[in-house]
UniProtKB/TrEMBL annotation:
PANTHER family: PYRROLINE-5-CARBOXYLATE REDUCTASE, PYRROLINE-5-CARBOXYLATE REDUCTASE 3. This is Pyrroline-5-carboxylate reductase. GO terms for molecular function: pyrroline-5-carboxylate reductase activity. InterPro entries: 6-PGluconate_DH-like_C_sf, NAD(P)-bd_dom_sf, P5C_Rdtase_cat_N, P5CR-like_CS, P5CR_dimer, Pyrroline-COOH_reductase.
Length: 271
């Protein structure tokens, strides 16, 4: 399988790095970028593992069976409707990670014979701890669904969902690591305030969040059950929890996802 990555920025690098780390056999890989600086960065990262092209999107697509569209959402239409590139998309698989760009839009911009799939990965894919949600038209043949699963599953967890959920998925899963890091940093700040060295506080906070999340995923236990198992009557945990509730942390985080979802829904629309 030969792959062309169009626009190899943060997420393109995360996908490639996670794939190399997992040992996944990707075949020939071409990354298409728009600047020499980006090309040099990729060459330093991957050496001969990735062929890097600058300003030659059509050439990269021509030699690939699968095309990963990793450009900014507002550039997707311009990139795909380039006449020379568009011609080379016939009969190939296009997997787009562009937030807010719908399957219908993608199908309008590519030849009828192009198989279109949406993917929403997140940056922890870089260390194979990612979450990727896939979506495709109802009539997509099973071999292409399997291809997408095989591509993203080595990078962490992967599942299909209806496209109607993708804006919320973008905010919760795609942006989620950034939101989680704010919580992590705040917990570490509290540790520092109470005398714990910064590096140790970060380690303790990160492992606490990682461990709690792993318990949810591994055991299937509800977060509330795990919280209650730590909370003893009159103890320090309930004191801290009440302080969090005083600060309306639940509604603030929930509204964060609501607001980010609204913005995600606008990203693919023409300006």
């Amino acid at each position: 399988m030969s792959i062309c990555v169009l626009g190899c920025g943060t997420m393109g690098v995360a996908i490639l790095s996670g794939s190399f780390e997992s040992g996944t056999e990707l075949g020939e890989i071409t990354a298409c970028v728009s600047s020499e600086d980006s090309a040099q960065r990729l060459q330093q990262l991957y050496g001969e593992q990735v062929k890097v092209l600058v300003g030659e999107n059509a050439k990269g697509v021509a030699s690939a069976q699968v095309v990963l569209l990793c450009t900014k959402p507002q550039l997707a239409k311009v990139v795909l409707e380039d006449p020379e590139l568009n011609r080379h998309l016939s009969g190939k698989v296009l997997i787009s990670i562009c937030a807010g760009v719908t399957l219908a839009q993608l199908q309008d911009w590519v030849p009828e014979t192009t198989v279109v799939i949406r993917a929403m990965p997140n940056t922890p894919c870089k260390i194979r701890e990612g979450m990727t949600v896939l979506g495709c038209p109802p009539n997509t043949p099973s071999q292409y669904r399997e291809l997408a699963l095989n591509l993203f599953s080595p990078l962490g967890r992967c599942r299909f969902m209806d496209e109607k959920h993708f804006d919320a998925v973008t905010s919760l899963s795609g942006s989620g690591p950034a939101f989680a890091c704010v919580v992590l940093e705040a917990l570490a700040d509290g540790g520092v305030m109470m005398g714990i060295p910064r590096d140790v506080a970060l380690e303790l906070a990160a492992q606490a969040i990682h461990g709690a999340a792993s318990m949810v995923l591994t055991t299937g236990a509800h977060p509330a059950a795990i919280k209650d198992s730590v909370t003893t009557p009159g103890g320090c945990t309930i004191a801290g929890l009440l302080t969090m509730e005083d600060g309306k942390i639940r509604s603030t985080l929930a509204r964060t996802i609501q607001e980010a979802t609204q913005v995600a829904s606008e990203l693919g629309k023409p300006k």
